[in-house]
C-alpha cells in the first residue's frame, strides 16, 4: 500500500454587510455638529446578535468667532469640543459550533480531529463607547497654545479565549468578557519664542496620563 501525504491549505469564509450614514451641521461658522451611524451584519455571530449598530457624535464651538474676539487681542483662538463614539466588532469565523481540523492522511485516507477550543453559540458583538472632551486655546498671535483632552472608554462583551485545564479535553473556551474601562488625559503646550520672516523656533511639551 502506497502512503500519500496530503497538504492542507487553511480556508475560512466570513461576510460582513454594512450600512453607513454621516452628516454635518454648522451654525454661523462657529458651531459644528458631526454625526455618523453604522450598522453591521456579521456571519461570525449568532442570528439573534448578528446585527449591531454603533454611532458617533462630535460637537465643537469656536468661541473666538462666536463672541467676535479680535485676532489682535491677547486671545487669538479658543475652541471647545465634546464627542461620543461607539465602535462595534465581531469575531473570527467558526466560533459558534464545533469544527474538525484536517490532519495528516492515514494510509491515503483523510483524517480529522476536533478543535481544541470550546466554542460559544451565544456570543454577542463587542461594543466600545468613548467620551472625549477638551479645549484648544492660543495666545499672542498663536505664539502660545494649550491643548487639553480628557477621554473615557468603556468596552463590554469583549470576545476572548480563556485557558482551560487539559483534563477537560480543551485548551481554551470562547467567552464574552465583562466591562473594561480606560480613562486618561493629555496636555500639549506649544510655544514659539522666536518668529522672524525667515526663521522660526517652535517648542512643544506634552504630558499624558492614563
Task: Describe the model.
The chain has one helix at residues 63-66; strands at residues 16-27, 31-42, 51-62, 75-89, 100-106, 109-114, 117-118, 126-139, 144-156, 159-163, 172-176, 180-195, 200-209. With 210 residues, the protein is an all-beta fold. Strands 1-2-3-4-8-9-12-13 form an 8-stranded antiparallel β-sheet. The protein has a 3-stranded mixed β-sheet with strand order 7-11-10, with no helix packed on it. The protein has a two-stranded antiparallel ribbon with strand order 5-6. The longest helix is centred in the N-terminal third of the chain and has 4 residues, at 63-66. Mean pLDDT is 90; it is low at 1-6.
Keywords:
single chain, 210 residues, mainly beta, eight-stranded antiparallel beta sheet, three-stranded mixed beta sheet, elongated
Provide a quick synopsis of the model.
The chain is mainly beta and 210 residues long. It has 1 helix and 13 strands; from the N terminus they run E-E-E-H-E-E-E-E-E-E-E-E-E-E.
Please render the helix and strand layout as text.
Elements: E1 16-27, E2 31-42, E3 51-62, H1 63-66, E4 75-89, E5 100-106, E6 109-114, E7 117-118, E8 126-139, E9 144-156, E10 159-163, E11 172-176, E12 180-195, E13 200-209
Parallel strand pairs: 7-11
Antiparallel strand pairs: 1-2, 2-3, 3-4, 4-8, 5-6, 8-9, 9-12, 10-11, 12-13
Amino acid at each position: 500500500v502506497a502512503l500519500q501525504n496530503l497538504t492542507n491549505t487553511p480556508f475560512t469564509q466570513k461576510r460582513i454587510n454594512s450600512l453607513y450614514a454621516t452628516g454635518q451641521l454648522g451654525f454661523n461658522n462657529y458651531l459644528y455638529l458631526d454625526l455618523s451611524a453604522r450598522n453591521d451584519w456579521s456571519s461570525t455571530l449568532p442570528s439573534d446578535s448578528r446585527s449591531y449598530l454603533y454611532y458617533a457624535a462630535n460637537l465643537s464651538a469656536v468661541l473666538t468667532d462666536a463672541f467676535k474676539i479680535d485676532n489682535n487681542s491677547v486671545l487669538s483662538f479658543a475652541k471647545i469640543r465634546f464627542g461620543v463614539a461607539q465602535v462595534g466588532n465581531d469575531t473570527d469565523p467558526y466560533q459558534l459550533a464545533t469544527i474538525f481540523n484536517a490532519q495528516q492522511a492515514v494510509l491515503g485516507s483523510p483524517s480529522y480531529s476536533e478543535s481544541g477550543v470550546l466554542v460559544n453559540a451565544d456570543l454577542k458583538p463587542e461594543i466600545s463607547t468613548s467620551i472625549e472632551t477638551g479645549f484648544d486655546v492660543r495666545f499672542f498671535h498663536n505664539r502660545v497654545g494649550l491643548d487639553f483632552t480628557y477621554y473615557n472608554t468603556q468596552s463590554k462583551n469583549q470576545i476572548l479565549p480563556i485557558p482551560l485545564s487539559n483534563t477537560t479535553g480543551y485548551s481554551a473556551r470562547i467567552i464574552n468578557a465583562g466591562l473594561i474601562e480606560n480613562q486618561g488625559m493629555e496636555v500639549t503646550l506649544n510655544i514659539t519664542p522666536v518668529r522672524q520672516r525667515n526663521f522660526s523656533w517652535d517648542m512643544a511639551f506634552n504630558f499624558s496620563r492614563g
